[in-house]
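Hey all, sorry for the wall of text incoming. These are the two entities for the joint prediction.
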Amino acid sequence: MTTEQFKIHEDMIFKLSQRRSPSEVKLKSMEWAIVTQLNGEKSVGKIGETLSLNPTETLVMFNRLMEEGLLELVGLPEKDPYAPEALLDEIEYAFTVFVGPVSSILIEDTLTELKRNRKNLETKLVALLVELLSLEITSAEKRYEFQKQMLSKIKGLV
Amino acid sequence: MVQQYFSDLTEIAGIEAVVIFDNQNNIVDSWALPKYNLTVFSELGETFMHVFGLIEHLDYDMEEIVMPFDRGLVYARSQEKFSIVVIARLSVEVSLIRLALNVNLQEFHNTRKVRRILKKLPDQKFYQIKSSTLDDVEKIMLENILEGGDDDGAV
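and here's what came out:
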């Protein structure tokens, strides 16, 4: 399986490619550290955590290793990283109760702010979407009700 | 108390500890994975008491702090009579922690038993900062911070 067509995600699992040796490439020490962790079992996120890298640093270094042809994809995340569209429909339904018919516009605007759409919103970003939408509800009591409803829906997903 | 009122938070995968501190840095209640040594929480609580005390004194509009560390993140939220500190793995989204806390804190505050407990707690954080607990560098930093602000609360 080639890796070039994939955008690296923290749930992906890689092993060292047989096509190229790391010694052929000039790597930084932390990139070497990642190479030593590649065992075809640990996910990108897990390796980042082990090496105390933040998610952005991890993805930058994995991208570099992939560009150098050192990575071979072993496994895609079993779980779909994107939130099901049905969940976004449920959010919209609940949100409409609190803000009225402008809810769909507000959701689209917020998704655009996040540089996402209904098809590519990662599950882990749903809580952020809910948080941003909550800010549109002026009544503290209603905001709490919306957040409570949404928490019960998204808690099991992450 | 934590497990009873903050179950939405403790049930999130990757949440490793939740500790409630009163404004005198006493642990009101805590929940943590067994790997955590409970004695570290007091130091953690003291740090946040200092920070939240200053925020309160300087009247800044800021009630939460998130700090990443080598293996995770610490999220702290200040309330009038207590602070709540959450330790989580880096994979946990801060917005999810905030969402769970928003919901659970509301229920927490609305519980009669909790209200009775909170009534007895001191409500100011800043005046709990004891100069004896600060080292020289911290004292100088504190003086510098307070120089520009209201001077009536010197420690």
